[in-house]
Amino acid sequence: MIEPPWNEPVYRNRHGRGIRTPMFGTRLPRYRTRSGMFDDMVAAQLRRLNGAWPELIRPVQFAVEDVPPSDPAPWESHPNPSSRCFPASHGVPARIVLYRMPIQMLSQSRTELQLVIRDEIVGRLAELYGRNPEDIDPEWGL
Prior knowledge:
Elements: H1 34-52, H2 54-57, E1 61-65, E2 83-86, E3 95-99, H3 100-106, H4 110-129, H5 133-136
Parallel strand pairs: 1-3
Antiparallel strand pairs: 2-3
Helix pairs in contact: 1-4
């Protein structure tokens, strides 16, 4: 005897029309999520900086999180809600973490978002290595 579809463990064949498919293709811009586009922008800035300063970029780990934790690090007197850097210690490499939601709140357009990402990465690299941000990227802050 044939079982009704609602008794099957996976019920995807609605009204006998077959398995559902996405409404748009994976190559179309609408398929990309905001977090995926943000990750791509961060990766593009890291590639650009790696071409100029590979010795600064290579030993640092980069991460993207949605929101910052509620507790600031003990060494930060004025915490920045957009990003945070962690110096290397006890075999753990230096890390720079960018927080997606606060950075997206600072920008109104895609171009502004790219500039804010660039400024955050360069500013944190400068803080990590004790340099001026203009030494790493002459366009910083423009």
